[in-house]
Amino acid sequence: MKIKISIVRALCVFFGFVAGAAASETVFVPSNPPEMKPLGGHHTPAYATAKLFRHGVNLGNYLEVPPGQKWGVTVSTEEFGQMKREGFDHVRVPVGWHHYAGPAPNFTLSPEIFSRVDFIVTNALANKLAVMINIHHFNELDRDPAGSTEEFLALWKQIAAHYKNFPPLLAFELDNEPHENATTTLMNPIYARAIAVIRETNPRRTLFVEPGGWGSIDELKNLVLPPDDNVIVSVHCYEPFHFTHQGAGWTTTDVQQTGIIFPGPPAQPLVPDPKLNPKPWVRDWIQKYNTLPTAQNPSSALAFTDKLKYVHAWSDFYGRPVHLGEFGAYTKADPQSRANFYAAMRRAAEQEKLGWAIWDWSANFRYWDPPNHCALPGMHAALFGKTN
Length: 388
Ligand code: BGC
Prior knowledge:
Blueprint: H1 2-23, H2 45-50, E1 55-58, H3 78-86, E2 90-93, H4 111-126, E3 130-134, H5 139-143, H6 145-162, E4 170-173, H7 184-201, E5 207-209, H8 212-215, E6 231-236, H9 241-244, H10 280-291, H11 302-318, E7 322-327, H12 335-351, E8 355-358, E9 368-369, E10 374-375, H13 379-384
Parallel strand pairs: 1-2, 1-8, 2-3, 3-4, 4-5, 5-6, 6-7, 7-8
Antiparallel strand pairs: 9-10
The chain binds beta-D-glucopyranose.
């Protein structure tokens, strides 16, 4: 399932890249549906909370994992102090609540998942980290948004009631990376209903909302939000995908070529592995990567700079803070290139006044090296601009 989904995501990202490249020459024009009303100024509760969610880390491959499976991540209480000492101010916690829901119509959540999430949330808060919990990998919602809406609302009703007295440093993100049939247009009214449900018990809680197309920047233009002034928009960006997902087994065969550095071009041209039988567009990408100078190379900041500029302009126009909720590079890339990449994306996000959260803490895109209780080489300096 994960493999199939990721193939679609990779294609979306690829076509998004092409569209993004074409859009880079154009000036920002607000083009959301007229129902999306700009909120004036930068003085809303959402902007106040955005200041607490500047430099974050995703606790990936942990609480979103289906029961009975392990994706190699364990978390100790000490790690929250380590996150804080590294310089992170928040942690994004993917949660697979739907795996723990009983049958319709109540979809009652088991106490087990609440106690596991409570452990993470209370430890994060005890270390003065802001924390965002979401619903992650709710595949049924992506496949059948209308048929899963009641469950989605029932989950949020219970989660919101459980956390209603928690401090404002806890935020909720409604749904991770809607995609497939969960288009932005279809999700807009579902989000509005979920926000209304949450507001019954949490009138002042900050909420995060992602557009469709896997939280795509190119989908911001289809977002329609209610006039609630405590909603932050969140987008994901894994460009340049050939670099960030090289060799990632859960995604398309088109990114199985490894040995791609950041930034390009490489000192010696990369010869595509014939066993991978690369498609013409992959060969074309590699050829540009081999030959173009860094400023024009597809494995460089060029792949995301204009996208983040657009986000900034969109955000300012609509009066909605935007958070970059996921970016990162798989550990199959070489350590120096990974550090270069995280530094470049972090700088670009900060240039555009976007809070960010890296994917991920200690899984397959990791920052942290749990056995050695330290950051991987180069990663601290990449994100915080100085060595630890
Ligand atoms: C998914 C992870 C995946 C990562 C990078 C996240 O949104 O939840 O499973 O490793 O993206 O592809």
